[in-house]
Each structure stands twice: as structure tokens, then as C-alpha cells.
Amino acid sequence: MPPMPAANRAQEPSTWQKLKMGAMMGGGVGLTIGFIFGSYSILRNGSGPRGLLATLSQYMLSSAATFSFFLAIGSVIRNDALLPPHIEAARLQLLPPLVRSKAEGAMLVRARWDAERARRTTA
């Protein structure tokens, strides 16, 4: 069967595009948070010797740089999957559930404790 043409297939963003998108989102969030906290700090403590605009811009830029850095890395790590999303969803549906009842969990814990106790007594 020949591969599907590229026009009919949805293309995922590349890692570089994910990094840029995370950095832009982090920059926007950081600027907003920097403005809020910087304004509060200036109203509370005064602008200091550098002036109002320089102090506020320092708060905003440092906050934007921090948020941008961490959100860029987080978006790449979070979205970097080896399998396409539809195959990953199918794989998760076919796996047995990890949720067990309290009784099953208690039995597993007791079995582990017994195994540890037996190991300690023989050693």
C-alpha cells in the first residue's frame, strides 16, 4: 500500500517548533507575572534609585526569562513521544489497569513484607 500523500496527513510540530512555542508562552506568562509582582513591589517599597520604569522592566524581564526557559524545556519534554498519539492511546487502552482494590494492595504489601522478613531471617 503506498504511503498517504502529505496533504491528507496531519503534520505534528517539530521539536524546535515546540521549543519556540513553549518559550513564547512562557515569555507572555512571565511578563504578566513580572508586571503584577513588580508593580506590587514598587507600590509597597518604592521604585528605588533606578527609577520606576527600570525597576519594573527588570522584574518583568527576569520573570519572563525564567518562565520562558522552563516552559520551553517542559513543552519539549512533555510532548516528546516516540509513538504517535493515536498509537499511544491504543496502547494505553490495551494495557491492564494499574488501579487495584484496597484488599489486593494490602495483599501485595503483606507479601512483600513477608518476603523481606524471610530474607532478613536467612541472611
From TrEMBL:
Organism: Suillus fuscotomentosus
A biological process from GO: protein insertion into mitochondrial inner membrane
Subcellular location field: Membrane
Family: Belongs to the MGR2 family.
GO cellular component, one term: TIM23 mitochondrial import inner membrane translocase complex
Transmembrane segments: 21-43, 55-77
Keywords, ordered alphabetically: Membrane, Transmembrane, Transmembrane helix
Any Pfam family the entry gives: Romo1
Protein name per UniProt: Reactive mitochondrial oxygen species modulator 1-domain-containing protein
InterPro entries according to UniProt: Romo1/Mgr2
Superkingdom: Eukaryota
